[in-house]
Amino acid sequence: MEARGFSFPRQRQVLFLFVFWGVSLAGSGFGRYSVMEEAERGSFVVNLAKDLGLADGELAARGTRVVSDDNKQYLLLDSQTGNLLTNEKLDREKLCGSTEPCILYFQILMDDPFQIYRAELRVRDINDHSPVFREKEIVLKVSENTAEGAAFRLERAQDPDGGLNSIQNYTISSNSFFRIKISGSDEGMIYPELVLDKALDREEQGELSLTLTALDGGSPPRSGTSTVHIVVLDVNDNAPQFTQALYETQAPENSPVGSLIVKVSAGDVDLGVNAEVSYSFFDASEDILTAFQINPISGEIFLRELLDYELVHSYKINIMAMDSGGLSARCTVLVEVLDTNDNPPELIISSLSNSVAENSPGMVLAVFKIKDRDSGENGKMVCYVQDNLPFYLKPSVDNFYILMTEGALDRESQAEYNITITVTDLGTPRLKTEYNITMLVSDVNDNAPAFTQTSYT
Ligand SMILES: *[C@@H]1O[C@H](CO)[C@@H](O)[C@H](O)[C@H]1NC(C)=O
Ligand SMILES: *[C@@H]1O[C@H](CO)[C@@H](O)[C@H](O)[C@H]1NC(C)=O
Ligand SMILES: *[C@@H]1O[C@H](CO)[C@@H](O)[C@H](O)[C@H]1NC(C)=O
Ligand SMILES: [Ca+2]
Ligand SMILES: [Ca+2]
C-alpha cells in the first residue's frame, strides 16, 4: 500500500490541500446550504457574497464560479447580486435514492488570488410520494388448522421518500381473525406481518378480504393500500354425515336380481379429497353379503340374489361412509321383504283308503293337512271336493281335514268315484293344488239273490 501511494503523482497532494481548506471553513459554519426538493428553477439558496463577507462586485471581479462535484450544474451563481440559485428543479429521490440526508457537494472557485471553497447543498425531502404496494392484491393461503399466533410476513410497500416521509406504519382493516404486527428489518425498514388471533374454519368462512394500508410519516401522511385476499385451505376436520340415520324400504320377494333397493347418501362439508366419500357394508353377515351389493361411489344398494320372504322377513344392513382422510359415519338400512304369492298350497295326506264299503255313511276315508308357506291372504286357504259327489270334507284343528262319505253308497249304481280335493289360497294370483283319489266302492252282501224272473214256465 505504502509503495503504491508513493508511486502516485502530485495531484493527490493538491487534493489533500483543498480538503484541508474546505474542512477549516466548514468548521466555521460556512458552506452548508439547503434547499427543498422540487423547488422551482431559480430558487434562492444563499447570498454567497454576504456569506463570504465580500464587498459588492467582488464576486464578479474575481470571476467566481461554482463547480459541482459531479460536473452537473445544479446551481447557478448570479455574480451581480451574489445570489446562489438553483439551476433546475431538484428531485431528492432521483439524486440520492434512499440515502438521507441527501447532500450534493460543490466548490466555489475564485481567481486573483486563486481560492477554492468547499460547500455542500442539502436537498431537503418533501413528502411527494405515497406508499405503493407492488401488488394490488396479495393472496395468502392459510390452512384452517393453523394455530393462533401464527404470523404471515407480507410484502412491504415502497415509498422513495426519505426519513419520516417514508413508510412508518401499516394497518389492516378491522376483522376478527387477523391483526397486524410491525417488525423491523436489519436495514432499518419496517415490514408488516399478519398474526392469526382466532382460529379459522373453512366450513364457516372460506375466504376473507382485508385492506392493508401503508402509512408514511409525512404531515399529512400519505398512504397506499393493497387487498389481502385470504383463502382458507381445507383440512379434513369433518366426518361424512348421512342424510338419514335410518333408511327404511320394502322389497317384494319377487324383485329381480339387480334391482335397486335403496340409495344411501352421506355429505361431507370438507373440500376435494377430504369430501370424497366411499360406501361399504359394515358388520355385515353372510346373508347380507350374498343378498345385496353396494356401489361404493353412488351408495346404491342392489339385489344380488332373489329374496325369499319365507326364509328372511327383513334385513338390517349397516352402512359405513368414509372420506379419503379416514373419517367415517354409519347408518342403518332396514329392508322389509314383502311376501308375494309364490307358494301354492300343499296337501299332506295322513291316511287314505282307496275303497269304501257301500252302505256305510259317515265313514272316514282320508285324513290330510293343508298348508301354505305364504303369509296373509297369500297363505289363507279354502279346501273343497266336488259338490255333486256323496263325499264331504270335515275341517278339524290345525288345518286338518277329514274326507267322509255323506250317505250310503250303492256299488250297484256307481262302483267308482273320482274325487278331486282342491286347495286354493286367497292370494293374487290364486294358486291351487289338486289331489285326486279314485275311490272304489266295495261290495257288501246287501242284495238277496234275485231271480231274473219270478216265475218260469
Ligand atoms: C400504527 O397504527 C396503529 C393504528 O392506527 C396505531 O395504533 C399505532 O400506534 C401506529 N404505530 C406507529 C408506530 O405509529
Ligand atoms: C275316473 O277317471 C278315470 C281315469 O281318469 C276314468 O277312466 C273313469 O271313467 C273315471 N270315472 C268316473 C266315474 O268318472
Ligand atoms: C285330477 O282330476 C281332474 C279331473 O279328472 C283332472 O283335470 C286333473 O288334472 C287331475 N289332477 C291331477 C293332479 O292328477
Ligand atoms: Ca412519502
Ligand atoms: Ca420526497
TrEMBL record:
<dbReference type="InterPro" id="IPR015919">
    <property type="entry name" value="Cadherin-like_sf"/>
</dbReference>
<dbReference type="GO" id="GO:0007399">
    <property type="term" value="P:nervous system development"/>
</dbReference>
<feature type="domain" description="Cadherin">
    <location>
        <begin position="34"/>
        <end position="133"/>
    </location>
</feature>
<keyword id="KW-0325">Glycoprotein</keyword>
<keyword id="KW-0472">Membrane</keyword>
<keyword id="KW-0812">Transmembrane</keyword>
<dbReference type="InterPro" id="IPR050174">
    <property type="entry name" value="Protocadherin/Cadherin-CA"/>
</dbReference>
<keyword id="KW-1133">Transmembrane helix</keyword>
<dbReference type="InterPro" id="IPR013164">
    <property type="entry name" value="Cadherin_N"/>
</dbReference>
<protein>
    <submittedName>
        <fullName>Protocadherin beta-9</fullName>
    </submittedName>
</protein>
<dbReference type="GO" id="GO:0005509">
    <property type="term" value="F:calcium ion binding"/>
</dbReference>
<feature type="domain" description="Cadherin">
    <location>
        <begin position="348"/>
        <end position="451"/>
    </location>
</feature>
<dbReference type="GO" id="GO:0005886">
    <property type="term" value="C:plasma membrane"/>
</dbReference>
<dbReference type="Pfam" id="PF00028">
    <property type="entry name" value="Cadherin"/>
</dbReference>
<keyword id="KW-0106">Calcium</keyword>
<keyword id="KW-0732">Signal</keyword>
<dbReference type="Pfam" id="PF08266">
    <property type="entry name" value="Cadherin_2"/>
</dbReference>
<dbReference type="InterPro" id="IPR002126">
    <property type="entry name" value="Cadherin-like_dom"/>
</dbReference>
<dbReference type="InterPro" id="IPR020894">
    <property type="entry name" value="Cadherin_CS"/>
</dbReference>
<keyword id="KW-0130">Cell adhesion</keyword>
<feature type="domain" description="Cadherin">
    <location>
        <begin position="243"/>
        <end position="347"/>
    </location>
</feature>
<dbReference type="GO" id="GO:0007156">
    <property type="term" value="P:homophilic cell adhesion via plasma membrane adhesion molecules"/>
</dbReference>
<keyword id="KW-0677">Repeat</keyword>
<feature type="domain" description="Cadherin">
    <location>
        <begin position="134"/>
        <end position="242"/>
    </location>
</feature>
